[in-house]
Fold CatA-like O-acetyltransferase.
Amino acid sequence: MEKINLTEWDRLEHFKVHSQRDVPLYTITTEIDVSALKSFSNKNKCSFYYSLVYLSTEILDSIENFRYKIQNQEVVLYDRLIPSFTDMTPGDNLYRGVTLLRGDDLFDFCESAKELSQNQAVYFPEINYPLDQLIHYSMIPWINFTGYQNQFYIDKDDSIPKVTFGQYIEKQGGLMMPISLEANHRLVDGYHMGLYFNRLQEKLNSLI
């Protein structure tokens, strides 16, 4: 973790402007084509959802602004983020929270996520990582939503990216899935949001 020297930070003016907002959190919702990921996960017999969490985390890690965190009126930069995601077993209607390091291999991650999720004795186990190092993921596979708003604490320092996936449907010759991303405008602009969505789509397309 690196402490940012704010006096030399190129984002300082933007940080100050958006620090004036009572709630500087904002969300963008769009669609991505998951056709290639669906084929990939079927072919390799790995979880579509776990694979998507892994790839999304890889993309967020590649964009520095999502790794900035506000701590005690200072800004720090983490090396990597940690996915923390909702999961549900077939036949259940209550979700559990699953948190684990991404690692460097998608298939290892999928296996570890499956094992961890199935063996959890409680829905929300204690998280042994810095909470602001997490990415919060949710999956709502029953709804092809067009907009999304998270519940939130009124905390101007909340620096945790929140990603929500929805139900994919056949559309425009592919499988289109809604996805929303929430971030803190003190750290992340629309430019960085665009990088995330575009890089994620390119990553998914490369799975063909």
